[in-house]
Amino acid sequence: MLTNRHIVVLGGDARQIQVIEKLISLDARISLVGFDQLDRNFNGAAKVAMDELHPEEIDSLILPVSGTDDQGQIETTFSNGTIRLTRDWVEKTPEHCVIYSGIATAFLNQLTKETKRQVIRLFERDDVSIYNSIPTVEGTLMVVIQNTDITIHRARIIVLGLGRTGMSLARAFHALGAQVKVGDREPEHIARATEMGVAAFHLKELEKEVQDNEICINTIPALVLTSRVLSRMPSDSLIVDVASKPGGTDFRYAKKRGIKALLVPGLPGLVAPKTAGRIIANVIAELLQDKLKGEESE
Amino acid sequence: MLTNRHIVVLGGDARQIQVIEKLISLDARISLVGFDQLDRNFNGAAKVAMDELHPEEIDSLILPVSGTDDQGQIETTFSNGTIRLTRDWVEKTPEHCVIYSGIATAFLNQLTKETKRQVIRLFERDDVSIYNSIPTVEGTLMVVIQNTDITIHRARIIVLGLGRTGMSLARAFHALGAQVKVGDREPEHIARATEMGVAAFHLKELEKEVQDNEICINTIPALVLTSRVLSRMPSDSLIVDVASKPGGTDFRYAKKRGIKALLVPGLPGLVAPKTAGRIIANVIAELLQDKLKGEESE
Fold it and tell me: Which of A112, A187, A231, B241 has the fewest CB atoms nearer than 10 Å to its CB?
């Protein structure tokens, strides 16, 4: 339980609703900033404006998945107002105040250095990344089904990268009857793909392997689908790039060659906001409770 | 090969392009009616108007999946003109002329009786139905992903009917990690579901089984999701009815209760016209060649 802990949720999208509900169930004291247009009220969470908060009374700050922009501004779906985090404001919070963000941003990195407040980047955790791969897979299925005139079943599909997301993608497309081929650099990933019953190749063979490709799904956050590789790929291929921005595809060249290439980061919040929200809610709840237990036993 | 056979393709959608290509590869003599606006020409297939045809020279007639309407009119995507089949016209074809249609229609049934020409209903064949279940599954995945805010993974999903399509649906959703429960009347289907590792129940238990449902997919072409059943289903459930029109859901009552219920027959042509066309092309090619062999050996 989080009784008497004051947690402030600053902005975000539909996913934060799951976080708020979870924190209410744990009896925290909750303030919501940037939810004034949300057509719903919560028993146990107060909608307030940023300047109504007393930073010295805040135990935890929860930011959206996107964190902040370079000026500290925070995205919020449920308000027309702007929310901005500043160094001065954060310095007024107690030293034990922890900031939870989905991803790291330059502003947050700088803030940590200057204010010594801990910033936890939830999406850098392996567990969050693996749980999040589930809605990412389903979003990718949707995008592929919408953008091809063939079935996934029996299609020749290349998955680039057998990391936390690539593993889930390879498994799902394989289960649906696709002819999956995984490209990776790590011998253990190539071994794992083989164990799973899908074909595997080393990325240095990519130029050769794309020659009869129908659908290519990239998870690697580095330029792997170069113009050289794309020049060998059939022009009626579909590329779905789920790596974080700017993706791993030379989109300019893909367009020139007539290959449909889609950069689709952030699928979880798009196709399954409730499940994606629960993933974040569960890990935040666990971290907050662990922290409280740690403080109590000190 | 179908050398010197004169085959007429009457109307249809993008799926017929696969049929035309397949028949060309088998060296048939092909006339296309209702393709005047198709932005493409075929080497070995002539676009003609209905009144340019000599019915006495036709060996086979290929209709679209939908067959004809009650007046003998034929749907065509690639023409603004209308195509109509009449008894008089069909009677002028040689007695061995076979008519291939996706489904049976009242008009075609009457035509068979009156003209003694054989009408083959491709979609009544088990093999076609099973092959077609593959794009149906992928279309259903798309519809479910688009219309829910949760993932398929771990969702409570009921599949009604473990027939040719239900089997494919149950397998795919199970493979993606859903909690699948199959409802059917046949003991052997309940046994098969159990063998596949999914839960199963007899349809007479449906009222009880829907109480914690999240997603219900119906394949049974009879009213199974009655108002009585729907009154027990959570109102935030999603129903996807893939049974042929009018489906198996009391849509009026579902709407009244606030349950989102979608009737989505014909998914294969929508989500994977190329694969769906190949399925039809392959079975037509096989049937035509078998018929020719049969005639030659007589």
Answer: A187
